[in-house]
Amino acid sequence: MEIVYPPVIAVAKTMFRVLDLRIQVDGAHHIPATGGAVLASNHVSYLDFIFCGLGAQPAKRLVRFMAKKSVFDHKVSGPLMRGMRHIPVDRKAGTAAFHEAEKALKNGEVVGVFPEATISESFTVKGLKSGAARLAQAAAVPLIPMAVWGPHRLWTKGRKKDLTKRHVPVLIKIGEPLPASADETTESITAVLHQRLAKLLDEAQAAYPEQPSGPEDRWWLPAHLGGTAPRPEDVGDPARLEP
Question: Does 243 have pLDDT greater than 50?
Answer without folding.
Answer: no
